[in-house]
Description:
Elements: H1 8-24, H2 29-32, E1 63-71, E2 82-87, E3 100-104, E4 110-115, E5 127-131, E6 139-141, E7 152-154, E8 157-159
Parallel strand pairs: 1-7, 1-8
Antiparallel strand pairs: 1-4, 2-3, 2-5, 5-6
Amino acid sequence: MPIDLFTRRTLLAAGGAIAATWGSGLIVPASAQGLAPTQSMRGGSNNYIPNAPIVDRIGGGGFWMTGTVRRAGDGAPLAGQRIQIWAHTTEGYESDPHSHGATLTDENGEYRLEMPQIVPAFGQPHGHLAYDSDEFETVFLRPVMSSSKDTSLRADFVLKPA
């Protein structure tokens, strides 16, 4: 005779146990860990130039790099955080200083920076991003685009206090 692990009765009992635990103020171990910090990606720091200037746009624009920045643990949005962005684009190589720029997150922890279209380098269209200030640990990202025809790329950061 098969055992049905997910009957309505077992789900209601589990829900009651969770509600009782939540109401008692006890923390369930899985939720005590919170939101894990983002790990740096291999190759993310390639051609990094420290202290790239904060800019309104890199080059002529046409491509959008976007994302959010949150605090590890509680996931709170982090306003005023500096995110540096660079890439191999239609206007320059990722090693060119004019291909680098930084922006700040808004009150919702969101950032958005327009730049020239990213083109493939080493066979892959990809961007580079860094959180490189002192308040949190440095993180370098190298997200790859699904297609070189994409006109935006999103990269989210979860930062751990330094």
